[in-house]
Amino acid sequence: MTVTGATLVTGATGTTGSRTAAALIAAGHRVKAASRRAARLPGAEPVRFDWYDPATFGDALLGAERVYLVPPVGDPDPAAVMLPFLHRARTAGVHRAVLLSSSAISEGGPGAGAVHQALRGLFGHWAVLRPSWFMQNFTGTHAHARSIREDAVILTAAGSGRVGFVDAEDIAAVAARALTAARAPNADLILTGPEALSYDDIAAVVTEVTGRRVTHRHLTCEQLRDRLAASMPLEFAALLAGMDRAIARGAENRTTDTVQRLTGRPPHSFRTVAERELTRRR
What we know:
40% of the residues lie in helices and 17% in strands. It contains 11 helices and 11 strands. Strands 3-2-1-4-5-6-9 form a 7-stranded parallel sheet, with helices on both faces. It has a two-stranded parallel ribbon with strand order 7-11. Strands 8-10 form a two-stranded antiparallel sheet. Strand 1, helix 1 and strand 2 form a beta-alpha-beta unit.
């Protein structure tokens, strides 16, 4: 398949959206960078887009043949706004869609699971990216990163459970491949880093890289839910706390070869990402 039209990247200022847009632009593809404020990214066409404002859909889809879908943050039922957009996208000429979901959410499950379930019936070319937890949760603007910077602590209800944390750069590399390769994956893809680490392991690496002692504080699922509910809807807080409980029970203790298979290179380790992104903050 020849790539001609534009790729619409939703969430283009976010963790994976910005990196996916950059990867596509670097490879010579035309990108429409969609965000609520039509933020400018070097080499991309800025376009205003809001999942909750259908009036923004038309301009965003104009000339787009592929779309990278980042669900609205914090919405426990993103399908309510995403599915009408996807039906409109198909009518507008989009033929390939790549959805960002989560390793913790299966097809038909909560959150983006309903969108995942609908995708294969809407587009002949598609992929669902199901990355494990982002390594950037500890280096960017996530609550873990803030608590590391402010209090030198990581708060979870995950106990000693292990997670195959993945670099957002690796997610973006897979997304760019899934969007533009001659053959779409037409599958859901679980993305992890090269090793499964506990939050105690993460704290130890951050301590070594930054020279500042960081600890992991173990909370109960209820304690975490209540802390999160102070800044988000209770339903979503309960969903996130439940994911930590699943981690504690071993649900994310795995690694996959997906990044290697789709990009031709191994995924980055957490130490590599920490040295790249935390040392420059010191």
